[in-house]
């Protein structure tokens, strides 16, 4: 009883000082544990009264926190667009998509911050700004901080980790976010360590989500340090990856992000590898010269994690200063891992749900396909590459004039674009079709992407004609003539108005 009263007094004193948020968090946490775990004094009226009073103090900040989350949304959006450099419609789409799919009491994203960020003041400032943006827009992340990297003893590592977490806490507080640092030994992470001192494997690492969920319910961002506690009370270090993976399996977030100072994986030319599709790319690992044992190991671990997460969840490795552009733009900025769906190849319309395919085409182009479209192409089909969920399609027709396959339609939904489906579908085309040509209206926003994919093009001011795999330069004239002479497959002025804006679906195709 004495310990409970002492903590209650300490909490009451600390909560009156806005600048002592760390002390307040510590007292809240331990008071919560004492009040809810003390079974012996459960029947005491004094304990019940104290618990009611303390819990009211802990959670009575919701109104003020809600006002913080409304803090200067105009400034937020302006800074957001300047930093990301993305289309406002695209930004709104992702904000709407993420916010609508996550409850306020759920973890939107588990973020593992590597030591090179935690120990760099500028990067930590940028990271804090991005996290606070998510906080104000009701997308609550859980942050995992690792052990210090420059220390030699276990105590030095632990102390450095705590100091880094406190620095992060202070920066987030300055940006208007409320946090709760979950210190080593607070009961969130338990297990038995195989190695003493150094971060190592653990037997049955257990994570209690009770305190995490209570933090989220009171609109505090949880900051978890990568340490656990044994049954005997011994503190041991955990590899940040292991803790992040375990947290993610329990909380089932939309995103899992590993934040560092340098960004995603690089290929042999020093360019960021934008997308890795799992388990597909693991099966072809020996065909890429930029794969290293470290990359292969990471891919295997991510593949195991994705298999335990919802199908629309993803894992990203990116830098602290490109975190928001990775989240809120189709182009991304880091290495994006996703579980890929199957892409089926058809040589006829048999076995295809034409109602779903028509809906995909109509929404992707924001125009209505003519009623006779499928009947018109049925005898001309060379191949149809269709994603299993009908989120993307490439319709390839025969060309009697050139004998080069003609891509009549390439369509991917907006959501699928952000998940890398467009690139995945295009990779399948390149593997299966050594030669291809297609056309696109000159005002189509996807043309920039097409220019990167083609080996030749022609502009007649109405149509852009693209091609790849054509070795005979004399053949290009025939391709251009064939492409521009084809009839339009859309209803004249048949624009779809029911969707309303590109926030729902964005035109992608030609």
TrEMBL record:
Instruction: Write out the GO MF terms.
Output: L-glutamate N-acetyltransferase activity
Domain N-acetyltransferase stretches: 341-491
**Which stretches are transmembrane?**
none
Cellular component per GO, a single term: mitochondrial matrix
- Please provide the Gene Ontology terms (biological process) for this protein: glutamate metabolic process; L-arginine biosynthetic process
A Pfam family found in this protein is: NAT
What are the alphabetically sorted keywords of the record? Transferase
- Entry protein name: N-acetyltransferase domain-containing protein
